[in-house]
Amino acid sequence: MALLFGIGYVSIIFEESLAFNKSGVGLLMAVSLWVVRSVGAPSTDIAVSELQHAFAEVSEIVFFLLGAMTIVEIVDSHQGFKLVTDNITTRKPRTLLWVVGFVTFLLSSILDNLTSTIFMVSLLRKLVPRSEFRKLLGAVVVIAANAGGAWTPIGDVTTTMLWIHGQISTLETMKTLFIPSAVSVAVPLALMSLTSGVSGEGPDTSDVMASERMAPRGQLVFSVGVGALVFVPVFKAVTGLPPYMGMLLGLGVLWILTDAIHHGESERHKLKVPQALSRIDTQAALFFLGILLSVSSLEAAGILRELANYLDAHIPNVELIAISIGVVSAIIDNVPLVAATMGMYDLTTFPQDSEFWQLVAYCASTGGSMLVIGSAAGVAFMGMEKMDFFWYLRKVSGFALAGYAAGFAAYLAVQSLHISLPTTVAQVPFISGS
């Protein structure tokens, strides 16, 4: 199974050379791995049960992705992004680089890294024409989204898992991981700012943006659409239901709203949800499905558990184990890796908010930025912008690695110097209430 996964992974990497679409390769790899798993399982019933469990988890993410992409597409069709792009007046690449990174970092801590990436990449499409610079900005979105998701319990799937199961608490995580997460973004941005691709004046898109007119009641659609995205973590906190249910709720509300405001206006059918559904990139969603199902087969077969046990047996230092988890998460999805880690160590071994769990939260979230395929944000970006694996490896991976290492060093410094966010943050109702 490991060999099959490796072949499939290499095929995705060399997509351009082999002329095979990565979505097709991902689906073929997923089915092949589960066929092998069904043969090797104690019984077919066990393999089917494992597949049903895995598919339930993967489907949650895929439906979340489809819901978010549709909401963003509806806002885009109403030219709602003009409300944002009209207020970003800078055309200096270096300034724009920092603005995009800062906004994504904050947005990801409120939403999650996947939703933030979909939103910001869609925004970049309206702000910057297709170019090398736009690809670089998209990579910044991936790095900033993963880092922003590391320091809040709702910003990344792995931190949410650790939070729900009691390994980390809200306030302590935010106080301790904010500085390392911020450093892991600031260092790549600073290094990118020194490159030749981020100098001088950027492309002038004012004529393009000026020619676009917001659709009727576009401001209302923008407000409801963004409100639906922001409401997802609130919905999860209030109801306890999975985030994709909150996303589907938002989509349903926006669907009814657009049907109502465009009722009887046949010339505006392209502004309604059915047309938006026909425009979203389902290829990206299928790629996502293939990758996650492939990784879940390795988890079901115990291969990821063996990897975790190997790390535990051969690396006695908790800091090195956490670093290794981050590095491996650049290749394999961080969710099953963290799940395996949680199964290996209980709260008696490492109590809540111990250094080990905080490092796992940081490393698993930010480590995925080192390769474009290492995180949900990267996979979404790769699908939406038709990103080439080797371009990201050449142009971005080194910066992401530097940020990852700098953030880790910042964490150790924070612990030794006892630095954290001001304790007055605890007075914020959202934080103190969890």
From TrEMBL:
UniProt keyword annotation of Ion transport present: yes
UniProt xrefs under Pfam families: CitMHS
UniProt topology in membrane: Multi-pass membrane protein
PANTHER family in the cross-refs: SODIUM/PROTON ANTIPORTER 1-RELATED (PTHR43269), SODIUM_PROTON ANTIPORTER 1-RELATED (PTHR43269:SF2)
Citrate transporter-like domain ranges (all copies): 9-342
Protein family (similarity comment): Belongs to the NhaD Na(+)/H(+) (TC 2.A.62) antiporter family.
Keywords, in A-Z order: Antiport, Ion transport, Membrane, Sodium, Sodium transport, Transmembrane, Transmembrane helix, Transport
GO cellular component, one term: membrane
Protein name: Citrate transporter-like domain-containing protein
Single GO biological process annotation from the record: sodium ion transport
NCBIfam families linked to this entry: NhaD_1 (NF038006)
Residue stretches spanning the membrane: 54-75, 95-124, 136-154, 177-199, 220-238, 244-263, 284-304, 320-347, 359-384, 396-414
Lineage of producing organism: Eukaryota, Viridiplantae, Streptophyta, Embryophyta, Tracheophyta
GO MF annotation, one: antiporter activity
Compartments in which it is found: Membrane
Superkingdom of this protein's organism: Eukaryota
Native source organism of the sequence: Pyrus ussuriensis x Pyrus communis
Principal cellular location given in the protein's record: membrane
InterPro entries: Cit_transptr-like_dom, NhaD-like
